[in-house]
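Quick one, probably user error.
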């Protein structure tokens, strides 16, 4: 069978497959990633996690969303935060409004917890980005962000951040320094080795705890279809 058109692939990648098809091989890969992350925190609680990539289009938002889903399916009270304040897309994935979000909270124009939106998935809430600000890095490095994190820790078992690509701007490094763990997403056959190495170096320079790398969009052929899955 012919390869699926690019548009169909993009549509499939945006799906919350861990929720829509939990018995699929791809959903199982997300659960494997979840288990590997948890093994990294045997002696200390995992409270916050950022997901980033070297560049756009590598699947970081899909990875962040599905990881949040599988943690919620485990019974953990989970919040997914769209901290990509430059090109936010989490609200599209969950079909939520984005009138109010993280930027409103950080600028003091909205309260934190009421701005978090419930989803159709048990134990999972989402804090969308809100309006795109002129100073994303300054907001993420502000005292308000640190206070926001502390308040979220009191309410949620795990906070997952979707951040901009690490090579494009400093936002991911700023949050990685504040959070418990970092996952780097790279694209099989698409990400240059030099870019992946540079991203790793930048995260380590920010004192990030790099938990591992998710290799995304690796092609498997099964009955003529191409499957896109992730593993750690």
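Nope, works fine. Designed sequence:
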């Amino acid at each position: 069978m012919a390869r699926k058109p690019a548009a169909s692939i993009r549509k499939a990648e945006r799906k919350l497959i861990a929720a829509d098809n939990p018995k699929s091989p791809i959903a199982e890969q997300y659960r494997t990633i979840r288990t590997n992350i948890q093994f990294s925190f045997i002696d200390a609680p995992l409270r916050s996690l950022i997901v980033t990539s070297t560049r756009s289009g590598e699947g970081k938002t899909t990875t962040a969303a599905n990881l949040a889903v599988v943690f919620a399916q485990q019974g953990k009270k989970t919040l997914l935060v769209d901290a990509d304040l430059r090109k936010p897309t989490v609200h599209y994935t969950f079909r939520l409004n984005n009138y109010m979000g993280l930027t409103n909270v950080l600028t003091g124009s909205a309260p934190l917890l009421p701005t978090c939106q419930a989803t159709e998935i048990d134990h999972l809430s989402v804090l969308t980005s809100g309006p795109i600000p002129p100073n994303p890095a300054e907001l993420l490095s502000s005292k308000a962000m640190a206070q926001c994190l502390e308040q979220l820790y009191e309410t949620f078992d795990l906070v997952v951040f979707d951040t901009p690509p690490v090579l494009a701007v400093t936002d991911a490094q700023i949050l990685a320094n504040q959070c418990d763990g970092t996952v780097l997403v790279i694209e099989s056959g698409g990400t240059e080795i030099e870019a992946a190495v540079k991203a790793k170096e930048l995260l380590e320079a920010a004192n990030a705890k790099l938990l591992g790398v998710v290799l995304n969009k690796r092609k498997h052929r099964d009955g003529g279809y191409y499957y896109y899955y992730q593993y750690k």
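The longest strand covers residues 210-222.
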